Amino acid sequence: MKLPQSPYVVGAKFHLYTRENTDANSAQELDDSDLKKLTASNFNISRRTIIVCHGWTENGAGYYDWMIRLKDALLVKGDFNVILTDWSVGANQLYGQSAGNTRLVGAIAGELIQFLIYHNGNTNDLADNFYFIGFSLGAQIAGYTGSYLQTKYSRKIGRITGLDPASPCYTGMDNAVKLDQGDAKYVDVIHTNMPLIGTPDRAGHTDFYPDGGSVHPGCANDVTDVVFTVSCNHLRATEYYVKTVTEDCPNPWTGHPCGSYLSYSFGFCNGCGDGGCPLMGYRAEETKLEGEFFLNTGTWDTSCPEA
Predict the structure, then answer these.
(1) Which of 34, 71, 81, 297 minimizes the number of CB atoms within 10 Å of its CB?
(2) Is 191 annotated in the active site?
(3) Which of 15, 72, 86, 136 is catalytic?
(4) In this predicted model, what pLDDT tens digit does every residue of 172-186 receive, in sequence order?
(5) Does residue 234 have an active-site annotation?
(6) For this structure, is 164 an active site residue?
């Protein structure tokens, strides 16, 4: 992992959407050096603020498809401030450089959150209402953001969801340099492509492993098309999460506590035990159960949990 590039090179930007400006072309840019942009925006500190961050090689400038669909689904779900993060220049470097840039983007995002809190009451309890959803390298950015706020401002955000947090440069490393459960009051993680692009490390209070966390229906395990196979499995974390927000699947996203996916596959863990079963994705915070949880999904066409 390399040192971060200059902020002027990485060029992280933050685009606000609310129910007053839902259209993709109506984003309001927030900048922690420009109070006028904040006061002229639709940002409201009394709403929950959900920050969404893309991963490596994704194009945040035009917005990646899953980010727009997630933004739309969230604004149907609730009256939120939804902030889409664009660090596409820093993300479209060689992987080692982009991984290095995550530390800078995390600090920039942390400063933005501090700026929003400072100019809207400046109390620590306001941090509870911030929720960061990050995919791949974006999940590692979420971790850096959470730890940065704690170290510099003694503020701890309410929740982080890691969507298949990136593995290269992070797996097996100290918690100080990767997403972990200390980065927010509640951290949940969806693993979909371990141990390749997605980390096999437990990273949250609640870690979900749909289909075992590696290979999924519809993502052909084809050695002749490795790029499709890997990216398809990796991106399933975003697809599953969006579906948990829209709630358009006939069966709930119930995760079952189990020691391994093999045991779950043999039917040894179909119940919920004394601790209960959490729902993967958006509603995971309703229970905040700690541990490892397994479930199976269906076909490529549905990408929904099995009964």
Answers:
(1) 34
(2) no
(3) 136
(4) 999 999 999 999 999
(5) yes
(6) yes
